[in-house]
Amino acid sequence: MFRYLHFSPLLSLLTFEHFVAMAYYYLYSTIPKKPLTSFFISSPHIIFKYSLHKFVPSTTPSLFPSRHRSKYCTWVSAVSCSVAETDEQHHIASNGLVHKEYADLNLSDLFCEDIGNLRIRPHVNPLRRALMIPAEVPNWKEVFRDATLPLMVDIGSGSGRFLMWLAKRNSSSKNFLGLEIRPKLVTRAEYWVNELGLKNVHFISTNAMVSFQRLVSTYPGPLMLVSILCPDPHFKKKHHKRRVVQKPLVESIVNNLAHGGQIFIQSDVLDVAVDMRNYFDDVSNKLVHIDSVDPSLPCDGDGWVLNNPMGIRTEREIHAEFEGCKIYRRVYQKVQH
Length: 337
Hints:
Radius of gyration: 25 Å
Order of helices and strands: HHEEHHEHEHEHEHEHEHE
CATH class of one domain: Alpha Beta
CATH architecture of one domain: 3-Layer(aba) Sandwich
Oligomer: single chain
Largest sheet: 7 strands, mixed
Distance between the termini: 74 Å
CATH superfamily of one domain: Vaccinia Virus protein VP39
Number of strands: 9
């Protein structure tokens, strides 16, 4: 491995990081050439379990003599391409499950021209000044065929397929409102709603943290269900204030919820699920967990609901379970003490 390091001038230029990088190269050259997807090197001192299609080793070909440089470049290129192909196949398979689960909606792949390129940012900072403006309250009688029906609000409705599926099966008994912070998703969802001819589901592009109270307090009918399903985790501790479930929103949900109404939360990230759980558990004088009023809904030993009670999984839920992740769920019901 180090047969080309007998020149003392070269040795003096090498650092510990160079040796570590070359050690990885040597180790890789001694094992069967299969796609290396279990780790990447972001720094020679740290190894993370992640995918190489997003991160390539920080080691550069210049670390190796010219006669080895081409091998290194070929290795990085081959591994990156192989991993990219694997992830592409994984992505296609996962999306196929989504289309299969929502097949009866038969949604068109054609959208209105003004939607533009549907490349959606996965993470949005809800505390940006432009997103702190409350949404305008719609004319509920124009939005819904019957604005007095019980209402379900989905905070972070994403593509909207989840609500459309529910709306199609409850066309005369319930109304559904989706609040989504990314405008392009709302534009497409409204296009699909019109295509399906649904008159009991509506989507609004807004920040639920600032608009929820204003919207639901004006709705003529009772608020019977609020769902917050796999919200943006905002992993960094300094960004936890961006998480949608905060005390003001929780208080607004609980205060506007009708007696007997329910709150359904879930996440594939345990830290996020526990965070949401703690907020709603703090309102124990108004909320009880579903297992205390409906024993037929099974929970595990930690109090997480085992199965999705809605009859259909969300898209994120489908992707997460396909990847082998556990979904952490809680269902609360409002009671009078």
